[in-house]
């Protein structure tokens, strides 16, 4: 894409959009043309072009407002691809400190200035989700964490979130596209709806056992109809050694999944010879609850809203050099900031 392919102020005034004939999320071409940018960046680019300064060589730095785990690099590089830019950055999944420079860009302002809005949004949102996932994984230790967060977000960004969760430390994700972006297989079992349609947990569990390939794990949701511990034993009796695990997803209306429920379920399974059956927990989990449920004997966790609703970690872009000379707005130090953790990307 050449500079002239960016949207201009005149074009903004002429664009017509029919909201009844499209999703409201931006397409890739709309992002690339600058339609998700704040209008003032388009105005600034056009103004600088009018006085022959748009192609000025600059160095920009992006820094984080808070500590966390850095993510969004691959998508940011894709946004800036085929531009004549030098880019340095932290690697995805690295810890970052508050006010740390996470990316440096050098090149003509006309080649990337209009992208400040989407670039910061990519890094801010991805890093927020990545950081939340890291907190969950640290709480879980060696136990598995799966991201189930797509239902809490607009579908246009759900794969970005689930991909970021795995970068942050989640062992897997359930969103199909999120997993495929990582070259992985999406992970998940079957929902309450299937059990309600079948009418009986054991009946559907047996059908599921027949349906799955021999080497696929059999994990059965057991809180739909009966007491969780009773249902866990019914399913274990029916599937025996074929049963990999049971999932507890007790709703908040009934108190959610508590440590005592996990302890009782674990004890009753063990007492009946089902030590091999794992206990997977989902439903409103956060790091604090994961820690308590881990201590109670839970083996794996499905985390949704805590990751999906994690606040973005604000990012700020500053010009630090113009035509090779150190610059900065008041309150900031002119010139590039030393950070030997930045790696040249091209």
3D architecture notes:
This protein is an alpha/beta fold. It has 2 domains: 159 residues, Quinolinate phosphoribosyl transferase, N-terminal domain (Aldehyde Oxidoreductase, domain 3, Alpha-Beta Complex); 171 residues, Aldolase class I (TIM Barrel), CATH 3.20.20.70. Helices cover 38% and strands 17% of the residues. The chain is built from 14 helices and 14 strands. A 6-stranded antiparallel sheet has the order 13-12-1-5-3-14. A 6-stranded parallel sheet has the order 7-6-11-10-9-8. A hairpin with a 2-residue loop joins strand 12 and strand 13. Helix 6 packs across helix 7 and helix 10 runs parallel beside helix 11. The longest helix is centred in the middle third of the chain and has 25 residues. It is elongated, with a radius of gyration of 25 Å. The two termini are 18 Å apart.
What labels describe this entry?
346 residues, alpha/beta, Aldehyde Oxidoreductase, domain 3, TIM Barrel, 2 domains, 6-stranded antiparallel β-sheet, 6-stranded parallel β-sheet, 17% strand, elongated
How would you classify the helix and strand content by structural class? alpha/beta
The helical percent reads 25-40%
Topology order in helix (H) and strand (E) letters: HHHEEHEEEHHEHEHHHEHEHEHEHEEE
The count of helical stretches stands at: 14
CATH class of the largest domain: Alpha Beta
Question: What low-confidence regions span 5 or more consecutive residues with pLDDT below 50?
Answer: none
CATH topology of the largest domain: TIM Barrel
* Strand order, sheet with most strands: 13-12-1-5-3-14
CATH homologous superfamily heading of the largest domain: Aldolase class I
What is the total domain count?
A: 2
- Report Rg: 25 Å
- Structural shape: elongated
Query: What is the β-strand count?
Result: 14
β-strand amount: 15-25%
Q: What is the typical, i.e. mean, pLDDT?
A: 96
């Amino acid at each position: 894409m050449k500079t002239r392919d960016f949207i201009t102020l005149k074009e903004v005034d002429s664009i017509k959009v029919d909201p009844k004939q499209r999703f409201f999320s931006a397409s890739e071409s709309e992002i690339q043309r600058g339609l998700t940018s704040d209008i003032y960046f388009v105005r600034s680019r056009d103004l600088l072009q009018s006085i022959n300064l748009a192609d000025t060589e600059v160095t920009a730095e992006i820094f984080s407002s808070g500590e966390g785990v850095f993510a969004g690099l691959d998508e940011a590089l894709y946004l800036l691809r085929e531009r004549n830019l030098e880019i340095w950055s932290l690697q995805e999944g690295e810890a970052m400190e508050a006010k740390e420079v996470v990316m440096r860009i050098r090149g003509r302002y006309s080649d990337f200035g209009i992208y400040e809005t989407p670039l910061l949004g990519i890094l801010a949102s991805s890093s927020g989700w990545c950081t939340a996932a890291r907190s969950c994984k640290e709480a879980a230790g060696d136990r598995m964490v799966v991201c189930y967060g797509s239902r809490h977000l607009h579908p246009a960004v759900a794969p970005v979130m689930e991909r970021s969760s795995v970068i942050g430390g989640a062992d897997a994700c359930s969103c199909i596209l999120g997993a495929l972006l990582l070259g992985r297989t999406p992970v998940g079992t079957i929902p309450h709806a299937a059990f309600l349609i079948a009418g009986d947990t054991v009946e559907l569990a047996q059908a599921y056992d027949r349906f799955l390939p021999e080497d696929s794990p059999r994990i059965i949701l057991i809180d739909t109809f009966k007491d969780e511990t009773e249902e866990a034993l019914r399913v274990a009796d029916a599937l025996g050694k074929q049963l990999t695990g049971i999932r507890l997803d007790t709703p908040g209306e009934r108190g959610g999944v508590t440590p005592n429920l996990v302890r009782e379920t674990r004890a009753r399974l063990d007492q009946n010879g089902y030590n091999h059956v794992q206990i997977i927990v989902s439903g409103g989990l956060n790091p604090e609850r994961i820690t308590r449920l881990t201590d109670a004997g839970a083996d794996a966790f499905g985390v949704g809203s805590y990751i999906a609703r994690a606040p973005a970690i604000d990012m700020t872009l500053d010009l630090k050099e113009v035509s090779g000379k150190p610059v900065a707005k008041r309150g900031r130090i002119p010139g590039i900031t030393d950070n030997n953790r930045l790696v040249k990307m091209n």
